[in-house]
Amino acid sequence: MHVMRTATTEIGYADQGTGPALLLVHGHPFDHTMWQPQLDHFSRTHRVIAPDLRGYGATPLGAHPHSTDLGVFAEDLIDLLDELGIDTCVLAGLSMGGQIAMELYRRHPERVRGLVLADTFPTAETEEGKAARNAMADRLLAGGARAMRGYADEVLDRMVAPYNTHAAPHVHRMMCATDPAGAAAALRGRAERPDYRRTLTTVPFPALVVVGRDDTYTPVTDAEDMHALLPVATLAIIEKAAHLPNLERPEEFNAVLENYLRSLVRPN
């Protein structure tokens, strides 16, 4: 695990392999290890960067103790790319990580040469959704680690399909280990995210949209709508997977991502 110090926090990140850069952005409430199957596989052909987002894993919440909007996450990732001397990357995000990827592309399109959006959606939060995210943030702050474990117990069967028992222990451990304050800050920030649908219509290069067939958080219909917005895109539905197909069905997920990476024109 590497550490990069910024003005407001210390970003922990994995950095494996050499070649074109592939930046992997984890979801909520996880850490960079949700990408371990992809770190292991793609570091054979790419330089794979997988950070812990602010408030997750080894990265402290730092100077944003109450609300971390997606722009803060995006700028942390740009700072990391700058530190590593990476001009452009293929950017892949899952769930909240996908929304952070869209925010990064909206702010810095010149830094992205490929976009992978997995089990995510581009629309702004509804009023009902804002209330639910803020209520959950209050619950996690009030209950601390015990509330985080209770939340993990409640949602595990939606994060990982019940038939994918091999992936469940890792996912549960990640959720239970997450700092409640970091999770709460991200929930509050995510509640205020913008609508990215127009941004997606401007992507000039081929993109990849991936979704688990049995995902109930971001169902296949959301992926289909997002796919339709992108000028040039491939839609891949991973069978026998829910919200985390990269962990539930890593071989299938990796095959889809590998085909996409091969389709991109390599920089000189």
TrEMBL record:
<keyword id="KW-0378">Hydrolase</keyword>
<dbReference type="GO" id="GO:0016020">
    <property type="term" value="C:membrane"/>
</dbReference>
<dbReference type="Pfam" id="PF12697">
    <property type="entry name" value="Abhydrolase_6"/>
</dbReference>
<dbReference type="InterPro" id="IPR000073">
    <property type="entry name" value="AB_hydrolase_1"/>
</dbReference>
<dbReference type="InterPro" id="IPR029058">
    <property type="entry name" value="AB_hydrolase_fold"/>
</dbReference>
<protein>
    <submittedName>
        <fullName>Beta-ketoadipate enol-lactone hydrolase</fullName>
        <ecNumber>3.1.1.24</ecNumber>
    </submittedName>
</protein>
<dbReference type="InterPro" id="IPR050266">
    <property type="entry name" value="AB_hydrolase_sf"/>
</dbReference>
<dbReference type="GO" id="GO:0047570">
    <property type="term" value="F:3-oxoadipate enol-lactonase activity"/>
</dbReference>
<feature type="domain" description="AB hydrolase-1">
    <location>
        <begin position="22"/>
        <end position="255"/>
    </location>
</feature>
